[in-house]
Amino acid sequence: MKVLAILLALLAPMAVAQEGAQVGTGAMLRALEKISGETTDFTLKPGEQAVFGRLSIEMRECRYPLGDPAADAFAYLTIQEQGSDAPVFSGWMFASSPALNALDHPRYDVWVLRCKTD
Q: Is 112 in contact with 98 (CB distance < 8 Å)?
């Protein structure tokens, strides 16, 4: 019960942020290969996919606070690993709090940097 209360307290500001959010034309993401330390930045439009190592990353939508695309962006991502039917991640990922709803993978990490507006 205590965990649920903490989770609700953390998610409440996110729900308020969605009310005054604009939809971006794309998202900037960063991926990390934890073993080699290689990082790659991606810019994806809604519906586009990028491949990083054994991961396929699809960005469906990126939102940001009204008038400030660099602050508190959040994107809906679906991440699949090659050879797996089920996604290893599917949901909203927040730029300001990447650990809140993070990809849990032993080799790769992916996070949102910001939305694109052009």
A: yes
| CB 117 within 8 Å of CB 95 | no
Position 89, amino acid:
F
pLDDT tens per residue across span 84-109 = 999 999 999 999 887 888 899 999 99
Q: How many residues does the chain have?
A: 118
**CA nearest 117: which of 23, 21, 25?**
25
How many angstroms separate the CA atoms of 58 and 78, rounded?
5
SS (H, E, C) the chain: CHHHHHHHHHHHHHHHHHHCEEECCEEEEEEEECCCCEEEEEEECCCCEEEECCEEEEEEEEEEECCCCCCCCEEEEEEEECCCCCCCEEEEEECCCCCCCCCCCCCEEEEEEEEECC
Mean pLDDT of the chain: 85
Beta strand pairing call for 55-65 and 21-23: antiparallel
